[in-house]
Amino acid sequence: MRAVLVALLATTTGVACKIDLDEFEEVRLCEEGSAAVCREAVNHSEFEWLQDNLFSTNCSGDDCHGVPVNGQPPGGKLVLAKGFAYATLLGKAADAPGEPPLVASQYTDDHKLVQPGAPNRSYLLYMMRGVTQEQGVPRFTAPPDDPGFMPPNSKPLCCQKLDAVSRWIEAGALP
């Protein structure tokens, strides 16, 4: 029965999405205007696509995680602009050989921003509301009210983009 409900909801919404079948609620459906890129996200898990369709479009504005000015990131403390994001998230340039040193979260000593192969250990995915506090291994610590969850003062990202981030991390967070 549940499989039928998932298939029915995927067919009626035109996109695959996380569904809470116990409550029969669709979670984070794509909003009008962004539906095309959300539908496209179901086919991607590579960093370049995430950079172009998530970090550059949803995160790296002048007030958030954009290009550093005078050596300082604007607003947010992470620089997610093109050419900076991979090193910011993993501690190395995309073309650098060897294993990344992994970047610790600023809000907890228990998690790295991105833990390759482990979405439930990656604080980035939690901050973006891609996994819940309880799904964290170990359990995630809530971020402070400032900055809060990402994107701030905005609706959550569509689940398809979050799933793409999760798949990228699960696959090893490759450049």
How would you explain this protein's 3D organization?
- There is one protein chain.
- This protein is an all-alpha fold.
- The protein is built from six helices and two strands.
- Strands 1-2 form a two-stranded antiparallel sheet.
- Strand 1 and strand 2 (25-26) form a beta hairpin.
- It is globular and about 40 Å long.
- Mean pLDDT is 81; it is low at 1-22.
Which helices and strands appear, and what pairs or packs with what?
Blueprint lengths: L1 H12 L5 E2 L4 E2 L8 H7 L5 H13 L25 H6 L32 H5 L31 H12 L5
Antiparallel strand pairs: 1-2
Helix pairs in contact: 2-6
Distance N to C terminus: 40 Å
Instruction: Report on the biggest sheet.
Output: 2 strands, antiparallel
Helix share, percent: 25-40%
Classification by helices and strands: mainly alpha
- Strand line-up in the sheet with most strands: 1-2
**What would you call the quaternary organization?**
single chain
Annotation field: number of helices: 6
Rg of Cα set: 16 Å
Sequence of secondary-structure elements: HEEHHHHH
Number of E-type strands: 2
Q: What share of residues are in beta strands?
A: under 5%
Which stretches are low in confidence, meaning pLDDT under 50 for 5 or more residues running? 1-22
Task: Compute the average pLDDT.
Answer: 81
| Shape field | globular
